[in-house]
Write the structure tokens for this entry.
Amino acid sequence: MKEQEKPKSEERLAELMRAACNGDQQAYRTFLLTVSPIIRGVIRAKAGGLPNETQEDILQDVLFAIHSKRDTWRQDHPIKPWFYAIARYKIIDAFRSRGRADFVDIDDFSDSIAAPQEEEGSEMDTETLVTKLPKKQQTVVRLIAIDGLSIKDAALKLDMKETAVRVNFHRALERLRELGKE
Amino acid sequence: MKTDQFIDLLAKDQVVEKLPKLGLYYLAGALLLLGYTYYLYASSGMGVRADYSESIVHFLVAVKQILPLGLAFLAFPFLRELLYPETRWKQRMRLPVTLYVASMVALFVYAWVTTEPELRMMAFVGKSSVKCLVTIPIYSFLVMLITFIPMRKFAPGDPKHAAMMGAVVAVGISAAIYAFGCDEDSPLFYAVWYNVGMTFAALVGGFFGYKLLKW
């Protein structure tokens, strides 16, 4: 990455995340799509020998951690050190749980070559995983993720409070991650 | 699940929780202990020493509360920093504990030199070392229980040091509140027994806190 591009990408990521914190789903999606290749690149560089599916699992663990802890980003602080730190923490954790003791440095992220997603044949799709969720969570995920309803509209349709819908959706995501690993 | 599909799901999950104001939880812990101290005083005359208002004007009595409280106040900003993922442990974060220990050592040496030799052992042993060793840790664990649970909403990049720092703040507050009822005024006593109790509580709290703060 050229030197003059670095501040722009830091700025761009921060801008996307700020918009996401204000409820812009598209900005948040773009943010996650932008950081994924960077994290994937580090995992590939360090994970040598682990199957691609496992590497992708680790990436999704990192993305879920960034997602769960996104309120720990202080908007007046740079964003790259923040998500690098989360990614590093989860990557080391993932390696340890798989019996590896690789050292992952923060510099590995800024030096990494971004790696695009490869097509994998054996991953279960969302629909298959959703059928394994508890009934209520299944309904919430179908309405929001598959039918494309907003949280508000899903709450109206299900005659639930918005907070209850959000909580169910969030729990469903956690469960989907666990199911995806099985 | 393909990562792109997973990202689509994440993007729709728009729950952004506000992080807890940790200071309020420590304050709640302190108020709870103060409330209990007042209850003891009101119901049985214990909890607050009978001559508190007369004795607190003396320097060696006042520092029993000022120093642990100072430790808690100095450690708290470092704790807040350590709860964020990008903060790494730095040498300067040892400062609150270093200053506190140095002060206690200086007070002990001062008391040793100024206390008559035949009175030193009595001052050192005191009458309430066991009470001190039991009460300070119990108070500390109560404060840690109230504060470590909300701390889990954060994402400390170094949970071990974050937990230790959280425990240090808790023991500082607890020792300061315990001192309301303590009539052992010699630094030969409190520079040792308070700190044994505080160290034990901090180590146990740090150990279990670390397990709690891992994410």
